[in-house]
């Protein structure tokens, strides 16, 4: 049974494109279908955590809107954060699912009980995960992944 879902941001919750306006403000687009799935997971007693290598106020805002309280940004060693999080939550790695799209996500994806990647993830990631979404990052990949996990947990 999955108790925690860990998500990367750029390339998973977003399409991986970082936009800047003329004033240096960063813009990101988030898929509302992914957001709906996250809320469903949270209401099904599955905790959601976001672990990102970059920092963005847009990510803080989106996570706040969705009710995600475990948000880690500017992280160099994602596995280290996952290990601490699992200890704090008293969750085994087998009870964790994670979705990532690029090389920095591999240590987490190899450690968890169930791993996934968007359709447009790099080949190295797609080779090692349990589940590859038919959808790309920021285009419903998280929705598809969470829907699958909810069905595995008997809540689909």
Plain-language structure description:
With 156 residues, the chain is of the alpha/beta class. The protein has one domain (4-152): Rossmann fold. It has 6 helices and 8 strands, in the order βββαβαβαβαβαβα. It is globular. The model has no long low-confidence stretch (mean pLDDT 96).
Which key terms come to mind for this protein?
156 residues, alpha/beta, 8 strands, 17% strand
Summarize the structure.
The chain has 156 residues and is α/β, with parallel strands linked by helices. It has six helices and eight strands. Helix 4 links the parallel strand 6 and strand 7.
Report helical residue fraction.
25-40%
In terms of quaternary structure, what is this?
single chain
CATH structural class = Alpha Beta
Strand content: 15-25%
Content-based structural category:
alpha/beta
Give the rounded overall mean pLDDT.
Answer: 96
What order do the helices and strands follow?
A: EEEHEHEHEHEHEH
The geometry reads as globular
Our measurement of the CA-to-CA distance between the termini, rounded to an integer number of angstroms, reads 13 Å
Q: Could you give the count of β-strands?
A: 8
Provide the spatial order of strands within the biggest beta sheet: 5-4-1-6-7-8
The second-level CATH architecture is 3-Layer(aba) Sandwich
What is the CATH topology descriptor?
Answer: Rossmann fold
Number of helices: 6
Largest sheet: 6 strands, parallel
């Amino acid at each position: 049974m999955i108790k925690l879902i860990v998500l990367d941001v750029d390339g998973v919750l977003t399409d991986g494109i970082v936009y800047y306006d003329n004033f240096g403000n960063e813009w990101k687009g988030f898929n509302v279908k992914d957001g709906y799935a996250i809320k469903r997971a949270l209401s099904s007693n599955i905790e959601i955590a976001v672990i990102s290598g970059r920092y963005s106020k847009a990510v803080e805002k989106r996570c706040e809107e969705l009710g995600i309280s475990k948000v880690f940004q500017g992280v160099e060693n994602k596995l280290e954060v996952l290990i601490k999080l699992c200890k704090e939550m008293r969750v085994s790695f087998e009870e964790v699912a994670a979705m990532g799209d690029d090389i920095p996500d591999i240590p987490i994806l190899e450690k968890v009980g169930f791993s996934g990647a968007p359709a447009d993830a790099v080949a190295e990631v797609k080779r090692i995960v349990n589940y590859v979404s038919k959808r790309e990052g920021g285009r419903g990949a998280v929705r598809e992944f969470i829907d699958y996990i909810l069905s595995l947990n008997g809540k689909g």
